[in-house]
Amino acid sequence: MLEPIHGSPIIIDRLTKTFGTTRALDEISLSFPNGGITALLGSNGAGKTSLINCALGLEQPSSGSITVLGGKAGKIDIKRRIGVMLQDSDLPDQLTAREHISLFSTYYEKPHDINALLTLCELDGFADTRYKKLSGGQKRRVQFALAIVGRPQLVFLDEPTTGLDIDARRVLWNTIRDLREQGTSVVLTTHYLEEADTLADHIIVMNAGKIIANAASADIRAAVSGAVIRCQTSLNENHLAALTGVQTVQTSGRFIEILTNSGTQTLRELLSLDDLVTELTVTKPTLENAFKRLTSNG
Ligand SMILES: Nc1ncnc2c1ncn2[C@@H]1O[C@H](COP(=O)(O)OP(=O)(O)OP(=O)(O)O)[C@@H](O)[C@H]1O
């Protein structure tokens, strides 16, 4: 187990980051939970990467402050206690996975044993292959191994599984869960809501540079009561949005998905207006439904 962190690993106070006229972060204040996996969610351009970059000291705040592991973001003694896997991580092509990990391990006081880490990240089969010959998924695993080789207390994973197939994604999910068991606080950004649903203990949702939700995953899901009706219908989105209880309506391929807080009534009205409804299912709302409702402007 790691030496425990005292208090919140990331404390943000009225943090603003502007790029020209764009307010990437708009006076946000929050404290990240200590331990567990926190998913940072938001649509493209919401401000997630800007927030992570400020936490890593890669960007300086325009105003406000951000404290990481009790110190100033970006200071070397803080960096040594943090692991990072960014979206675009370029590594020298000629080194093997084992050589990359050996090199990185020299930066840290108490690194992981290299063979144990190769096994943990399921890299045994290609540990001695040059980086350039690895597949996209294998490269992501090497990048992940580098993020955790120093046994960090806090890890940032920025879209760690983008582009991975479902098997590779599951391998990484298990390794992320192992990190949590060892006491590491994990901050994860992802566009796969299924991933956040599966992994996260806590969820922070950003929109246009602001925090619009910050709660335990179970509470975020519970806040969306009611039902999700999915079907094929000849009624259009505007017509459906006017039915009793309807919160959001979304077309997905041939299907319409309706989030309603009054499932029975909505269903009655739908069937009375269109008796040719087909492929009808009614399910409980998911994190994806909660996310859509939080980020819809309505
Ligand atoms: N270096 C930069 N120069 C100018 N504008 C920037 C810069 N970095 C970010 N922005 C702008 O700040 C806003 C927030 O961007 P950011 O990358 O933080 O969003 P994000 O939530 O990470 O998006 P994505 O999910 O697409 O990665 C966007 O409008 C973006 O165009």
UniProtKB/TrEMBL annotation:
SMART domains: AAA. Gene3D superfamilies: P-loop containing nucleotide triphosphate hydrolases (3.40.50.300). Residues 10-233 form the ABC transporter domain. The keyword Nucleus does not apply. The keyword Transport applies. It holds the Pfam family ABC_tran. Keywords: ATP-binding, Nucleotide-binding, Transport. InterPro entries: AAA+_ATPase (IPR003593), ABC_transporter-like_ATP-bd (IPR003439), ABC_transporter-like_CS (IPR017871), ABC_transporter_ATP-binding (IPR050763), P-loop_NTPase (IPR027417). GO terms for molecular function: ATP binding; ATP hydrolysis activity. This is ABC-2 type transport system ATP-binding protein.
